[in-house]
User: What shape does this take?
Amino acid sequence: MKKLVIALTLITSGLSAQNQPQGVHVTGEGVINVVPDQVLIDVRVEHEGDAAVEVKNKTDQDVDKVFKFLKKEGIAEKYVQTERISLNKNYQYNTKTYRYVASQSISIKLVDINKYENVIAGLLNAGINRIGNVNFTSS
Assistant: This one.
């Protein structure tokens, strides 16, 4: 009986080994380094003051200067987008008064990376006071 069980075990294990698919499995990783040719820039204009209308108007004026500058630089409107506009009322615990903060975030895509330095300098002169992210990418 033991011989029969051993023989059946050997036969079935041999059959299951023959049913296994044959092949070679290879796993790999490729790395490509490219020189960036585009820049994504996130900037913000933000002002703080005692009156909501005052800070909102000042922010709007600076944002208008930013848009005019970008247009003058030949950056297409499709590459300039307002991301966020906010107006907040903040309580100052030390002085027991309220202050208002208005901001507008703008994202800019430069398809000509050679304009980067000039655009950053011009944006600062136009009134942006925060640079969020600068991402160099490749098309």
Notes: The helical segments are 2-18, 52-72, 116-126. The longest strand covers residues 97-110. The chain has a mean pLDDT of 88. The CA atoms of residues 23 and 56 lie 68 Å apart.
